[in-house]
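Two proteins follow. First one:
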Amino acid sequence: MATQKTIVRLGEFEMAISHPDKLIWPELGITKLSYIQILAELAPYLLPYSTGRYLTTIRFPEGIHGVSFYQKNAPNPTPDYVRVSPDGNIRYVVMDSIPTLLWMGSLYSLEFHVSSDEIDNPLPNTWMLDMDPTLEEEPRLMEATSLVGQLLDSLGLHAVPKTSGATGVQIVMPIERGPSFDDLRRFGKFVSEYLVAQNPGLFTVERLKKDRGDLIYLDYLQHYAGKTLPAAYSPRARPGATVSTPLAWDEVRRNVKPADFHLLNIRERLREHGDLLSAAPRQSLASILNQLPSK
């Protein structure tokens, strides 16, 4: 029996999609074909955050309830239109085009995690703080996010919160190039330890999960060369088909939930609000870093 296929066309590019009716998110009725169609619409927003970075994907060949695996090495055979960048003995996919994104989607890549470091520039252009709740559902998450924003505001800095698409939030701040990743860790350490000292019942910098109690872990170590975080607008392989979504601070104050943003409503949100992260200005951390301890 021949495998059912559908041809997807974008301009001169076309790709055959096998098993187009396979359910990827069964509870929401999202099939393989509808997922790829959604990715095509998300591409202008997602690709700026994966271009020029090493890509790690999580693949779910039988949908979100099936077996999954992380993939760093480019799958073989790799189409000619897919850019590959070697790092050590790994050939990473560089997701910098719509055809590459759709190809990854056709391979059941449901999450896109990108390196903090860029392939062609050792100096970071972004500072990030990963807020990782210990509880699967953390009712204080947006309160905690707001406290981080208030501290940054007091330093004359503006950042953008984005849901991880899972349980947490990342605070994202575009910066002017100059500081190293080690410099950014110093800044992250200062921010995190200050927040813990001011709010010991809410935050922790304890790395071991068993020692965190019910506190929210401020992981300033995760933004570093060689480490990954979910790209803005990456889907997540969770029952609600959640998407890592930049937020406005008034949404944080309204106590929105990460589950509020998913593959079935993200396109309407983007049409209405655009990409809140792309509008954020680049800021200099030089004067603040000069006042922090060197280690």
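Second one, unrelated to the first:
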Amino acid sequence: MKKIVLAGGCFWGVEEYISRIKGVVKTNVGYANGITKNPSYKEVCTGMTGYAEAVYVEYDENQISLKELLNKYWEIVEPTVLNRQGPDIGHQYRTGIYFIDTEDKNLIIESRNEEQKKYDSQIVTEVEKLECYYVAEEYHQKYLKKNPEGYCHINLN
């Protein structure tokens, strides 16, 4: 299985959306590329930890390519908006693609460059190596499956 971490605002909706994609075999929500060890949600919400709310994704390359997965990702983010997605504002709500396999970096950059052609404003989505990732508290995992009426900035219909 291939792995990648994607940030696109509140992680509840991103996880639900990504988990529905054919070929995605595992997801969980957590905190990517910050500076404190094992942060809590409350700490991440202060904006002082440097973490992005993110979704860890394992996918089967025989069913979906990284390029296809990224195309799906671009459909749900506003990549030219810094530190905000929908009504959620803060550094933790930035968009980001955090690669685990260095060999994925060039394909991710190509995908971002292709997406850039759709916008007049510069895409601000981070493309970085995943430096650290902490799984979020259990109540955040599969949140919208547990709470179907819960908040989501992404149209899941």
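SUMMARY FIELD: The mean pLDDT is 97. Residues 105-116 form the longest helix (12 residues).
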